[in-house]
Amino acid sequence: MTTAIKRPGGPETILLIEDDPVVLEMVSEILRQSGYMVLTAASAPQALKTWEKFGRLIDLLLTDVLIPCRSTGLELARKFQQSKPKLKIVFTSGFGPEICAGDPAMASGWFLPKPFSQAALLRIISNCLKADVSSSETCHLTESELYPLPN
User: Fold this and answer.
1) In a 3-state reduction of DSSP, which class is residue 58?
2) CATH number of the structural domain 13-148
3) Is the pTM of this model over 0.85?
């Protein structure tokens, strides 16, 4: 008797913003293979165009904190949440969660430090999507647990 392997992803759509092409490809492939619909952008202008076309369908924003073209992931998150307040957000950065501590955009965001494993990526995406949008729960994920961001 064979049992089906349950993928962690569902029908959710993720907008992935990442300026490093290798990381963009790797993360989008992991998410797609896990069952998520993934839209990608390598810059703020690309992200804005994608949001204009598909914003109503996007469930989660997965963005690097620092991206080129005179914008940041934090600024894009604020802009997108104005039109979709229940948007789930996961920030990533190699600089650690302190880079976004105290920013209002983090009030409903999660943080995943780089580098991260496939398991950590899928765990934080799943946890963020399941989280109560109305809560002010803000966390970053390590390989083993969730910790609150510093204020």
Assistant:
1) coil
2) 3.40.50.2300
3) no
